[in-house]
Design a protein that fits this description.
Helix content is 67%, strand content 3%. Strand 1 and strand 2 form a beta hairpin. The protein starts with a helix and ends with a helix. The protein folds into 2 domains: 103 residues; 53 residues, no CATH class. By secondary structure, the chain is mainly alpha-helical.
């Protein structure tokens, strides 16, 4: 019996050792699986992070493209508005030139004897002639040569010659 007991005890010990070894093997396998799963999760997390970064970068690039397109559109609008304004200004200038050229020129007066108050004829319209009496100063102005020196003017601000530059002094005095 003792032999049987010894054999049973040995078998039991062996069984316990086998159980312990099985448990350790199971635990090691579980720990390896857990580690492997953790690595997989980390790689998946990294991949998802990279994908998210790529999506964000793509959206950012698309956003930049949209912003650049909007900038280009606004610049084009501004340029077209500037061109419209320039065209309007050019048209106005041309209209003004045409108006100036189409206006009937007033007849230039011959030098008038400005010592006497003489009525003279002026051609305002092509149809009507009017008799007009001019004051003495206007007669002097009309009678002067175009290239002659201007008539001295008396003005409150210019009665001190020292305030004027030499050119202005020669012009007014």
């Amino acid at each position: 019996m003792e032999k049987i007991e010894e054999i049973l005890i040995e078998k039991y010990k062996n069984a316990e050792e086998i159980r312990k070894s099985r448990n350790t093997i199971k635990q090691q396998a579980l720990s390896q699986r857990i580690k492997q799963r953790a690595k997989e999760l980390k790689t998946i997390q990294k991949v998802t992070e990279l994908e998210m970064e790529a999506k964000i970068a793509w959206r950012f690039r698309e956003g930049k493209k949209l912003i650049n397109e909007e900038k280009k559109l606004t610049e084009k609008k501004i340029k077209t508005e500037m061109l419209r304004l320039k065209v309007k200004l050019d048209l106005k200038k041309q209209e003004n030139k045409l108006k100036r050229t189409l206006k009937p020129q007033k007849s230039k007066l011959d030098p008038i004897n400005h010592h006497k108050n003489i009525p003279f004829l002026s051609l305002d319209d092509e149809k009507t002639l009017k008799d007009v009496k001019l004051s003495l100063t206007k007669k002097i102005l009309y009678s002067r040569n175009f290239n002659a020196t201007p008539i001295p003017r008396k003005n409150e601000y210019f009665h001190h010659p020292r305030r004027l530059s030499p050119e202005a002094q020669s012009y007014f005095y």
